[in-house]
């Protein structure tokens, strides 16, 4: 049984209404602009309390650091809430960075995207004969921007480690061409991202016969 109750934003009894700060009445979270500024110009909010943002501690730390630098250090750098690597630490881990496919379609239009995907079989699973084609990898590319990778998803062993590494590359503007030019480390799970050649639109079979 999986119970995912999330976090409760305790904002209704701290006096925000006194100074006119608006909250989302449905969930108590605070809407902000891209600089974490509320509707009251001198009030800012960061972290899990933000409406529509990720509830992740590293995101809150990064946003707070950048906010302090903008307010007191002359910086103009804003927190990137899109290219955030994260992992679900279930027995078979799931990791992602960037857009989910559905949001990418609504943001860029399906005709402007190319989605590459594959099932794969970790080498360490071949000896004990564990189920093949359980693990899955996918990248979402923006065809209008040199096939830049705007979403990366992986379901498999050590997905957190895999995702963390590719997250830096995505921040640097990773493209499908660069992935294709990258030499994979055999036989790692991450190698699968350097050999993807089947698009979702093609409808081709993505099952794997071996490692």
From TrEMBL:
Keyword Flavoprotein applies: yes
Domain of life: Eukaryota
Swiss-Prot/TrEMBL keywords: Disulfide bond, FAD, Flavoprotein, NADP, Oxidoreductase, Redox-active center
InterPro entries referenced in this protein's UniProt entry, alphabetically: FAD/NAD-bd_sf, FAD/NAD-binding_dom, FAD/NAD-linked_Rdtase_dimer_sf, GSHR/TRXR-like, Pyr_nucl-diS_OxRdtase_dimer
Pfam family, one: Pyr_redox_dim
Cofactor(s) named in the record: FAD
Domain FAD/NAD(P)-binding residues, every copy: 1-64
GO biological process terms, semicolon-separated: cell redox homeostasis; cellular response to oxidative stress; glutathione metabolic process
GO cellular component, one term: mitochondrion
GO MF entries: flavin adenine dinucleotide binding; glutathione-disulfide reductase (NADPH) activity
UniProt-listed SUPFAM superfamilies: FAD/NAD(P)-binding domain, FAD/NAD-linked reductases, dimerisation (C-terminal) domain
Pyridine nucleotide-disulphide oxidoreductase dimerisation domain sequence ranges: 84-196
Keyword Calcium listed: no
Family designation: Belongs to the class-I pyridine nucleotide-disulfide oxidoreductase family.
The protein, known as: TRXR3 reductase
